[in-house]
Predict the structure.
Amino acid sequence: MDFEKKLNRLEEIVQKMENGDLPLEESLKMFEEGVKLSRECQTRLGEAEQKVKLLLNVDGQGNVQTEDFQAKD
């Protein structure tokens, strides 16, 4: 699942849980899914931030320095 789909699903979960109409067991399952999605999105955002930092690295003469970004698995 890509980042945007994960984020949309996370928003759906939050909305359903905020309504307060779910049985306890379903609320717990949704909460667990939400935590997992939140961690996955946070990891992806961290990777994107690192890539941007690499791409914006400029040397002393004003030349943009890029290097390959290798995500940690």
In short: Residues 41 and 67 are 24 Å apart (CA to CA). The mean pLDDT is 86. DSSP finds two helices and two strands in the chain.
